[in-house]
Amino acid sequence: MKKNIGMVDKTVRIALAALAVVLYFLGVVKGTLALVVLIIAIILVVTSLINFCPIWALFGWSTDKKKE
Fold this sequence. Notes:
Layout: H1 7-25, H2 31-50, H3 54-59
Helix pairs in contact: 1-2
């Protein structure tokens, strides 16, 4: 896998995941929507940790500033 997530993208993904988890634990989202939000949060964290987003790769996009 070629790295395609930059630092800003990574920070935004982790912040959105944290917000999703907070909304879940505060009870703002409930039921099926809560599960969907948590799954999206997990995906955001995992893609941030591995520095690779399959959707970005599908479209040929990269937010990583480093050129290989």
